[in-house]
Amino acid sequence: xxxxxxxxxxxLLLFLAAVTAAWVMIDRRPPEWDHANHLERxxxxxxxxxxxxxxxxxxxxAMSSFYPPVVACAAGLLYFVLPIVPLTAQAVMFGFLxxxxxxxxxxxxxxxxxxxxLAAAFFLGTAPFVIFSLTNFQLDLPLLAMVAVSLYALVxxxxxxxxxxxxxxxxxxxxxxxxxxxxxxxxxxxxxxxAWLAFRAPDRGPRLRRFLLALGIGLVISLPWYGPRxxxxxMQIVNRSFKQAAESGHAPALTSGSLxxxxxxxxxxxxxxxAPLAAxxxxxxxxxxxxxxxxxxxxxxFVIFLxxxxxxxRYTLPLLPAAALLAAAGLAQLAPSWRRAITWGCxxxxxxxxxxxxxxxxxxxxxxxxxxxxxxxxxxxxSDWRHREALDAILRAAEGxxxxxxxxxxxxxxxxxxxxxxxxxxxxxxxxxxxxxxSPLGVQxxxxxxxxxxxxxxxxxxxxxxxxxxxxxxxxxxxxxxIAEFPLPDGSRGMVRMRRLVPVAGPTAEELARRLRLSxxxxxxxxxxxxxxxxxxxxxxxxxxxxxxxxRLVVEADSALVGEFVRxxxxxxxxNVRLSVEGVLFHPQRLVExxxxxxxxxxxxxxxxxxxxxxxxxxxxxxxxxxxRADLHLGEGSADVGLVWSGPTLSARxxxxxxxxxGPFTLGVEAVSVGGISVPGPLVGWVVRHLDPTPRLxxxxxxxxxxxxxxxxxxxxxxxxDGPAEGRPQERRER
Length: 735
Prior knowledge:
Blueprint: H1 3-26, H2 33-50, H3 56-61, H4 70-78, H5 86-111, H6 114-125, H7 128-134, H8 140-157, H9 163-177, H10 183-200, H11 204-226, H12 233-247, H13 256-259, H14 261-270, H15 274-284, H16 289-299, H17 301-307, H18 313-316, H19 320-332, H20 336-359, H21 387-398, E1 403-407, H22 416-426, E2 430-433, E3 445-449, H23 460-472, H24 474-479, E4 482-487, E5 493-498, H25 509-523, E6 528-532, E7 535-540, H26 542-546, E8 549-562, E9 572-586, H27 588-594, E10 599-601, E11 604-613, H28 614-622, E12 631-634, E13 639-644, E14 649-657, E15 666-674, E16 677-678, H29 681-691, E17 703-706, E18 709-712, E19 715-718, E20 732-733
Parallel strand pairs: 1-2, 1-3, 7-20, 11-17
Antiparallel strand pairs: 3-5, 4-5, 6-8, 7-8, 8-9, 9-10, 9-11, 11-19, 12-13, 13-14, 14-15, 15-16, 18-19
Helix pairs in contact: 1-5, 1-6, 2-4, 2-22, 4-5, 5-6, 5-8, 5-19, 6-19, 7-20, 8-9, 8-10, 9-11, 10-11, 10-16, 15-19, 16-19
């Protein structure tokens, strides 16, 4: 890089840094949905790294089932030297963009010339959607940077003829995969092109070995995160690409609306002159043999995103490095007089579109057939969405005690995602949850807003709850009175409601207990059917019962089908059942006036005794999707399991070992084989540590405990089958 080029690139990056800083200092809106979730993980990574007593690697790998940790932990590391504020987070985005801009310059300089490299860097840095991405904490701008770095490493590796750069290409591939899973789609075509060059070279043997080395390095770097997710991640990607897109109202795949979406937004996304130059460069680059193969292959992923139903400008953002290089190639192929004039036009329009994209100065006009304005724009907004006021009201009412808070609305600036980020960032003793199904179980405070509740596809539940608070359910409104109210920038009003149980007037405690027992049997019908010998008993204090408190409720049955019948889930036959629920809260007024039991809180659920036979357990397992050909044999202390899918048979022996921490027991897996070939023990242990479901009990909203679980020939037992644990409880009053 010449000194002149370095100065020009530095000026470009300083300009973009100033724009980002100015935007962040003006804007006061909370981070939206996914942005808030990524920021929350950044804070979590920072605290994991700051605590020497934690399993740092394990916890970081487990932070998200879909999003790798590189970007979040980059911000987490920066939080060691800078405060946890929006400007610090966006500094991470700027850092990734700087890397991407320099990488694009390097690719352009090597494949074209230095002037083209500068033009490509300018086109990329001033793209309107890149400016938008600089003001939000998302993974797509870092993904763009890693795609650009991978292209640069592949160019420098020269068909894997250079060992050092081949190793660095492998490292870039691994880090790219740890940025976001779609990296594979962007990187595979250029990687395949480089492998093809290696295969055609006279010294193909050494080159292909270096290619395999690069793949191995990428695999070693990315496998610790992807390994435990290999089974579930592909289905998540398919669901996000089609099922969730349909639920969100996207046009069906292969329709004109879907196929024309990206062509109609390319100019607002990439730039006023850069977009037509890229279209011209796609044809003009055919005369550049060193560049055409790599750049054409780098654009092939566009076909994938054109065909899937889920459409978002973020998904094609990582294609902009290739588009910037094509635009630079198109500019280089113009006649000198035209090239000079268009270069000055690009400089002027580039600065103008940055101002328009970041601050709407000037406001971008809308032009058909484009979707939206000619420049993608999102100016800052200094309006206060009053999160601090809502949380302060809850903290005062909770008097310093931990509390569970439901955020009903799913508005982009007033949702559980951005409130939860506030709570995590400030270390508040609050647990945040979404709008509830059925009853507000465990909810102590509710944050609501009037007016629009968010996107149509996700607003049915908030709309139902707001209708209930608005008069459709007077009992719900009575038990959650308003304790704070404030105006919001969209013209609606925000409110905080607090759960308050008051003693019911009229019936005696004995009469209320009788009604509660009868309604409990009806309530449990959604979870237990075909019960034989069904019994319900309780322990309570009369004055507490009148305000909806039961100390302990015990359910027993000789046999019952147990499951989520409301959701049409496959039930399991359980025998000799005894479980208890402690710290029960219910709505006494609703019970008295309607006869319906509405649970408002549970402190603990304890399973004291339960038996499941081998035949009934196997029937339950085979009813699950993908397990229709499963086999199961229960022996003394272990279970032999066989799973037959379309490929080879998987067999293993399972044991239930003493608990080692979070769960009621530890799952032990041994003698694992696939198609008769034994799987190494260390690999089995690594997979089991990440897939073991028992630690998830720690994250449930109520404490769940099981008596010792034993595997015996022909049956699975929880607790002792002989007599009740802790004595048979009697329905009684306690003073």
